[in-house]
């Protein structure tokens, strides 16, 4: 979400009390296992085949040759804990996402009173609590899933020194799983990373590489991204948007960059204020390839244009549509195991009802607020 002089207006509208960032384990009423009762959400190894990130096919594949489906702004929820804030990008939190098969989590970090906090644009707008707490919850999940490799991407909004992030990683306990690459072009296989228990790859924007914390990686030394402000279904493309030194996609891949697809649609509210759009979410988050705006089509187009599968994909409201299926299709797997299926939204509604009710609440509040503002002019 982006703001200018309208920030105070929108903050008054959708600013809420701080969101608890310590994620509880999913309750039985919220998540139903996709496996038999004797199975768990941990990707277990059978006597004949190891399973990595929910599939034996991925074990021998190199880290940079896999598509990881990811939750954009994963800490910022549109649910009862935020008053169904229209600033929220997700209905389900990070541990739900990991249980469902996502292996990529992105979040925005601000330095508030010398504490790193997960805040959406500003801590006065939507505050999901200390980064350390969120990392601790993710660490608990990683500890319980020894056959999984995950990736984190943190937006360092205030250009904080890497040492402060290192402190949060250390205090949360997740630093012990940190992976340090030795090359941009040669990455190990998932099975090698699992064997070495270096199963968390962490990218951070606006930092310099650190010899004291080599597992905290400057994002744009390794990743290029497609454009991220999309207002129309035909606006998704595979152009290299940043960093500027990546050049064309072919040039970027030759340098060892991995590709990240931003696949989420915003809605213009007023001026230059945008909010995550749920109107077309069934199209945007569909693994299909036959309609403009489909997630599956976007991945397919980039794969064809780049001659490489994208490494990372970011979506809003990941539990709507068939986002994980889109990653499976990109990876060429149909034997995934050990995932949980989301039975309902956090507010207790069905998926379809959840989109409708939260959108109605948010837009009603927007209309009322701007009407009141006009009356005061």
UniProtKB/TrEMBL annotation:
The keyword Transcription regulation does not apply. Keywords: Signal. Residues 33-49, 340-357 have a biased composition (Low complexity). Residues 33-53, 328-357 are annotated as: Disordered. It comes from the Eukaryota. The keyword Lipid biosynthesis does not apply. GO terms for molecular function: phosphoric diester hydrolase activity. Residues 328-339 have a biased composition (Polar residues). This is PLC-like phosphodiesterase. It comes from Trichoderma gamsii.
